[in-house]
Amino acid sequence: FYSGHWNCVYGGDWRAERQSLSDSETISPCEKLSLTLPRIISTMSAAFHVCLLLWCLQTNAVPAALAPPENLALITLNTNYILSWDWDSTLAEGHAVDFTTQYVAKFKLRSKRKNPVWETACEKTSHRSCDLTKLNLFYLGIYVLRVQASVNGSVSDWTMKEFCPDKDAAVGPPSRVDLSPAGNGLDVIISDPLTSTNSSMKDNIQELYYQILYWERSVDTQALETQTLDSKATMVTLSDLKAWTWYCVSIQSRYDFFNKSSSFSSPHCMQTEGPIPWWQIVGYFLLSLVICFLFVAVILCSSIWFFKTVKAIFYPSNQLPTHFQYLCDSSGSDIPRLLTPDSDSELLCDKVTVCQEPPVLEIHIPPPEALPVPPSDSSGRHSRQGSGGSGDSGVYSTGCNSGLRQPDSIQLSSGDEDSGQGFLDLEHVKMKDMAPELKTRLLIADDGVVDICV
Questions:
Q1: Residue ranges of the alpha helices (H) in 66-119?
Q2: Hey, how many other C-beta atoms are within 10 angstroms of the C-beta on 359?
Q3: Do 135 and 103 form a contact (C-beta atoms < 8 A)?
Q4: Tell me, what's the pLDDT at 413?
Q5: pTM of structure
Q6: Domain Fibronectin type-III, which positions (predicted)?
C-alpha cells in the first residue's frame, strides 16, 4: 500500500527518488520508515509463496487412496454361497493385492449400545471370491457383507452388500428322479433338493413344491405335446397314459413367496405297461419249454457220461490174459491178488482153464508082439482089460477140472496088429457116441501114439 501510494504521489520509481533525496538533503526518520516498509512487505510475500509451494509439493507426494472392490455378486444354490467381486489389477502397479471379506448380522448394526463385531470369512486372499458356505448362515437371517483391498500396506475403503439367503439364494432342482411302471401309468419318485449338509431343503422352505412336466417320446420333436402337474408330494402317479408307450418326465422346484424356480431336471424316460398279448404268452411258454428241455438234456448227458467214466475206471472192458486168470481166490472172485507159498491149494479151481491149447487125448499102443492075446468068448469078441490089470496102458488124458495133467489107464489087448487097429476104431466110435458135439481128431503116429483133440 505504501509502495503503491508512493508511486502514485511521485509518479515514478521510489528508489530513484530516494537516491536523489539522499544526495540533496538529509532524510528524516519517517521518511526512512516509508522507504524500508515496501522492502519488508515484498520479502514476506516471497516467503509466503515459498511455503505455499512446499505444501503443494508435499501434498502431491502422498499416494492416492486405493479403489475399493466393485460389483459384489453372490453365486448361490440352495445353501451354497460364493461372494465374488471385480477390481482393476492395473491399480496395483505390479504389487500383490490381497482381499479381506467380513460379515455381520444386520440387526447388530442397528444397535446403538456398542459397535458391532465383524466376523472374518476370508482374510488376505488373492482370489476375487470368497466361499461363505462353511459359515452355515441362518437361512432366514439377513447379513451384511463387506470386502476391502490392500496393496503394499495401503488399504481401500470397504464395499458392502446385504444378503438374505431366503430371498437371494437360488433353489435347485430335485436331487434325484426315479420312474417305475404302474399299469397304464407311471410312478414318479422325487428326492428333495439337498443342502450343503445333505439335508432336505424343505427344512428351510416349507412351501417348496414341484412342477412335473411329462410328454410322449417321439422322433418328431416339434409335435411334442407336454403336460404339467404341480405337487408337494415326493411320489406322484401319472395316470391315463397309453399302454406300452414311452414317456419322458422332467421336474422343477418352485417357491412362490419370493418367486423362485429352479431349472428342470434332466429328462427320465420309461415305457408303460398294459395287458399282455396272447402271442407273447405263447412265445414265453414255448421259450420256457425249450429252456427246460435243454436243461434236462444237459443233465442226462452229463449223468450218462459220468456213469460211463466211473464204470470204465472201476470196471474196465479189457480182461486179463488167460494165463493170468488162475490168480483167483476160492470164492470165485476175479480180482487178481498176490500168491503166497501157503496158497498152493488155492490153485485147484474148477473154472480156471490152465492149458492154452485144446485138450488132447493121447493113446499109446504097444507093439503087437508085446500085447497078450485076449481070451475070446462064445460070441467071438475080445474082452477089454480093466483098469486094474497089469501093465501100463499108455493112455493119458488132460483136463482143466483139477488144473493138473493126470493119466487115464486104458489097456488094449489084441492078438495082432489088425485086432489092435479094430479096437482103436471101436474106441473112436464110442468117443463119438459119448460126446457127439465134440470134434474128434484121431492121429496115429509111427511110434504108436494116437492124439485126440476135443
A1: 106-109
A2: 15
A3: yes
A4: 40
A5: 0.52
A6: 173-275
Is the C-alpha dihedral spanning 110, 111, 112, 115 positive or negative?
A: negative
What is the tens place of the pLDDT at every residue in 199-215? 999 999 999 999 999 99
Tell me the one-letter amino acid at 347: L
Phi, psi of 246 (to 5 degrees): -85, 130
For residues 116 and 110, give the distance between their C-alpha atoms in angstroms, rounded to a whole number: 9
* Whether residue 135 sits in one domain with residue 88: yes
Bridge-partner residues for 442, per DSSP? 452
**Nearest alpha carbon to residue 249 among 261, 262, 264:** 264
pLDDT band at 34 (very low <50, low <70, confident <90, very high): low
Burial of 37 from C-beta contacts in 10 A (0-12 / 13-18 / 19+):
middle
List all residues 6 or more positions away from 142 whose beta carbon is below 8 Å from its beta carbon.
105, 106, 107, 162, 163, 164
Residues 185 and 264 reside in one and the same domain? yes
Tally of CB atoms within 10 A around 146: 19
Strands (E), 300-429: 360-364, 395-397, 406-407
Rounded percentage of the chain residues whose pLDDT exceeds 90: 43
Q: Decide: 261 and 255 in contact? Cβ < 8 Å.
A: yes
| Element (DSSP H or E) covering residue 410 | none
CA angle 435, 436, 440 (to 5 degrees): 80
- Specify the residue for cell string 499416494: 63
Answer for the pair 199, 79: CB distance below 8 angstroms, yes or no.
Answer: no
Q: What's the rounded mean pLDDT across residues 346-360?
A: 49
Per-residue model confidence as pLDDT tens digits over 14-29: 444 444 444 444 555 5
Q: Which of 124, 140, 168 is the last residue of a domain?
A: 168
422 lies in some domain: no
Q: Give the 3-state secondary structure of residue 104.
A: strand
Q: Of the residues 109, 141, 168, which one is the last residue of a structural domain?
A: 168
